[in-house]
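Thread: quick sanity check before group meeting

JM: Hey all, I'm pulling together slides for Thursday and realized we never actually wrote out the predicted structure for the chain we discussed last week. Dropping the sequence here so it's in one place. If anyone has concerns about the input, flag it before I start.
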Amino acid sequence: MSNRGSSRLPGVEDEHEECIVLHVDMDCFYASCERLRDPSLRGEPVVVGMGYEEGESHGAVATASYEAREHGVESAQAIGKALERLPKKSEKNDEASGGEETTDDGESDTGDGHDDTGDEVRGYYRPVDIEFYKSVSSDVRSILHDCADTVREVSIDEAYLDVTDRTAWRVAEGFARHVKNRIQREVGVTASVGVAPNMSAAKIASDFDKPDGLTEVEPGTVREFLAPLDVAELHGIGPVTARTLREMGIETAADLADADPRVLADRFGERGRELYHRARGDDDRTVTPTGRPKSLSRESAFTDPTTDTEEKRTRVANLAAAVAERARDRDAMYRTIGVKVVTPPFDVHTRARSLPGPVDEPELVEEVALDLLTEFDDDRVRKVGVRVSNLQFTESDQTSLDGFETSESTGNDPDSASEPNSSADADSSDSSDRWDKWKNTENPPDTTDSSGSSDLDESTESDDKDGPSRSPDHDGQVSLSDF
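JM (edit): ok, ran it. Output follows.
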């Protein structure tokens, strides 16, 4: 890595250090943004719902503040379930009820959530406002790019920084604190930061002391730092993989580091070797600026394999909404919609269908994903995912199938779909008819891949987890991990 000299802090130009990587992870970012907009929410349980509307119980939890998590509210949870655990405070009725807190129907709340005094606790529910969150994220990113020459933006609320040319190990913790303080002071939201000589260790370190944490792992101490951690705390290991490892007698990172990599490869494929090296603190990836992804996806594991068709469909519908929202956030249209289904023990099946042209149609993502899922209605399923690919990035207003001619292609190559018709006078009422015609004539791409998935694909936005959240202390913000 080049030594820029003048970019370093005074007095450290001649030091030759290992890489210094920061992982900056915003704490409950969506909820923090809502508190930034409405300071009265500070210290209160806040739930931000994806697909949620005021007075409704549909949608899924995008993020929950730490106060809300104390009552069992988790990311990717159905809003209806969240409301059972943490009833909604009806703000509009506060004055009319003379200060007595009520639910949306005006009656006294009888939820199960109570504080230490036995009084019922109610939460504040807000719909996702991605444009506002993007504006706050932009302010944070400006600080990060000012503090580092190389920044890899992983998602709206986290990034890796290579600050090797900006500081030295003996003052790295102070530099990281400077970054944290700037974000808090200039933007008004908190971040947890991990400092380590590689990306995976920095990622784990940022989770180590949330919220508002700062953890440093010095060179030569990474394996020692990781050793006592439960395997579920390692980056890329979720509850399903963790349970399988425990069945193999592997409880901690130290156990995983001492395991036979050949046995792990036999059980998990190439990913087993990756997990082995990560547990030993080995990660030779470099922080590189994020390019445009080739696909966007989200996946989630069930606690136990399930044959419940409705449970599988509900999970896929929620994932489809998350994927479509993220694509819109990235100004991306997509030509292929797919699902991933993992059946016991770890057989991975992917199904995909190509469209006549690039679209931005959240309802279509859900419809196609659920249609593809029907093949697995009778199967025991441990994990599902939804993906959109063949992305086209645009600032244009083209956001639907309107204006597309029906594709005549019936090949299995997603790229064989026709380009969109540029005609601007298409009747919008014909959109569903064209979709129905395509749906009935298209020969959907159909592939099966039993090799498993990796979270190291640099062409995708990857932060793969087996489930919606690793632990109560993990932010669990709904984002898109690719498969």
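AS: nice. The two ends are 31 Å apart (CA to CA). The chain has a mean pLDDT of 77.
JM: adding both to the slides.
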